[in-house]
Amino acid sequence: MGKRGRAKRAGQAAEASSGTCSHSGTGSIAMANVRARSATSHHRPKVPGSGSGVPHPSNVQELLRIQQQQLQQVLKANQAQPISAPLPRKSPPSGNRFSMLLSENADSEPPQRAPAAAASTAAASDGLPPFSLPRWVLLYDPAELQRVISAQFAKETVVGLDIEWKPTFVKGQPENPVALIQLATARIVVLVPVKHLRALPPALVNLLSSPAVWKVGCGVTADAQKLSNEYGLEVRSVCELGPTAMRLQTEEAVRFPKLGDGELVGQGLKSMAAALGQALEKPKRVTRSNWESRPLSMPQQRYAAQDAYVSYWLALCCNHLHARARGKTPDVCAPMGCWVEGQVAACQKWNESRKQALAASKASRKRQKQEVASSLELESTDSGWSSPETSRVGYSDAGSIRSFSRLSY
């Protein structure tokens, strides 16, 4: 082999050795990349239910984005399916929990109440205003109470008033102070937890003491006295609905639609509402509950709002019934403030006349007893039974002695 052949073989051997080295380097690099990828894929979060084509997210936001896309796909698939019949929707209860405002620092307007599921059909059928409990708010912030009362009661002339306090279960124990004041109109009921307020809002004080705003209710006079004794609040212009309804029934021939002939209307909220066809629920587990708790439960809030609104509604219905008894249509009823003021004045005169009639009746019965006693003495004297025993006997004994003497003769 010549020099040229040996050189050619040496070059081929060098190329072969260099090629082997280059291939081995490439393989090691590839193995390193595979190991790195397996390590990173081991630490990546896995998406549940994702296939091989779905990329694995590297952070929480990517995971949430993928889940939202999957949810949207499911929703679109469900919407594409035909529905044979619409599902029945459940109407929200009156005064639902979304209409409550329980925060202490509420800067927005009180929530609007959803429409009531069913009003009082009985009252509507009798031509009376329907019983529809409005929205109510429970506020613990004096500044927010000041704003709401000023805005909602500025133009009102009649307000339903009621109070609640924690009951006592020990005989002889004094009553607890007022824990809650309820103020109601046709549009809103405001629940004022005076027990937990840092200060009384001036709007509340002015509303209760205003002579131009009538506070109506059953037992509202005693409620006003309790507020005065415990918080120094002056409550003026109050109207008791019980005597007002009784005077209208007996003196002005106002007929309550659910009462029979000769049946007198009751003096409480529940009996008066029943006389108008509205049933009220007053469960003892709510009426005898702790009214100082914070916040009040939903049954407590609804019961408190209902009691105040019933007072306002009863006054409104009595105004309509009074107009009907006078031959007028409900659309020409007297304004509520003027009507209540007139009824209070009429009730005062009616009460005075009743007191005078009661005093005259007592005096008449006393004179009749004296006349009967004097006539018995005369008869016993004429019949000869004037012994000390006869003079000491009572009215019934004297009568029996007189009848025995007549039989003996």
Describe what you observe in this structure.
The chain contains 13 helices and 6 strands. The relative contact order is 0.08. It is α/β, with parallel strands linked by helices and 409 residues long. The protein has a 6-stranded mixed β-sheet with strand order 1-4-3-2-5-6, sandwiched between helices. It has 2 domains: 237 residues, Ribonuclease H-like superfamily/Ribonuclease H (Nucleotidyltransferase, domain 5); 64 residues. Helix content is 52%, strand content 8%. The C terminus is likely disordered. Strand 5, helix 6 and strand 6 form a beta-alpha-beta unit. Helix 4 packs across helix 5 and helix 11 crosses helix 13. It is elongated, with a radius of gyration of 43 Å. The longest helix has 47 residues.
